[in-house]
Amino acid sequence: MLIRCAYKSLCQRALLSGNDVVLQCDHPKALWYFSSILEEESLLLSSVSNVKKLPGGAVQLINPQPSQTGLYSCEDNDGSLVVEYEIDFQDITALHITHKGLGQEPLKNETLNLDGKVVVFTHWEPWQDCSRCGEPGEHKRLGYCYIEEPQEKPMPCKLYLGNEKVQYSRMRPELQVEACLVPYNHPKEIHQPYFVFDIYQPGKLTNDMWLTCPLASIYR
């Protein structure tokens, strides 16, 4: 997933851990720094093992973890700020999954007392495309934990809490599934790149196995 932000701006996002993300920075000699919500000192991002610098200045975070929640700053070679991203990587292992067709309910808004009353709620993304066309399928949407104070702009939960150690079961991301039916329209032929995939047949002695689908993403 590609995340963009306007020049010299700070953009705040909630995302899911375990899913690759690319942070855009339009400067070929960009220097990236990371400041964790738990630490004040910034770290040169090139020293982090799961970070890959891309041509043009962007960086790719591979399998980001909740511990990588914090501030990502892109600077030019003179030390001037180009763009900043404040990202809350919410724990995908705590994902609350529901299906509307089965009558399953998403998490309800709840009020907490954190030096004053705040509301914990789910900020929903738009529904993604239907998995099939011309026949019944399913589509999904992602929701992220947000906290809102009265008269203040809502913030992703971990970014709001900072280094406060608050354990609360409501603070988790969500995924909602729903049945869908869209008509089939004959697409125009377009040039598509092709990929070669390896095929592996498990033997009888094989135990657990982790299957990875190239280019797959929970964001689409």
In brief, what are we looking at here?
By secondary structure, this protein is an all-beta fold. The protein contains 1 helix and 15 strands. The protein is globular.
SSE arrangement:
Layout: E1 2-3, E2 10-16, E3 21-23, E4 31-36, E5 43-44, E6 51-53, E7 59-61, E8 70-75, E9 81-90, E10 96-99, E11 110-113, E12 117-124, E13 137-148, E14 155-156, H1 157-161, E15 174-180
Parallel strand pairs: 1-3, 2-9, 10-15
Antiparallel strand pairs: 3-7, 4-5, 4-8, 6-7, 8-9, 11-12, 12-13, 13-14, 13-15
Please provide the ordered H/E string of secondary-structure elements.
EEEEEEEEEEEEEEHE
Instruction: Give the strand content.
Output: 35-45%
Poorly predicted runs are none
Summing up helix and strand content along with how strands pair, one would put the structural category as mainly beta
Radius of gyration: 20 Å
Instruction: Give the count of helical stretches.
Output: 1
Shape: globular
Summed over residues and divided by their number, the pLDDT gives a mean of 88
Percent of residues in helical segments? under 10%
> How many angstroms separate the termini?
9 Å
| Major sheet | 6 strands, mixed
Number of strands: 15
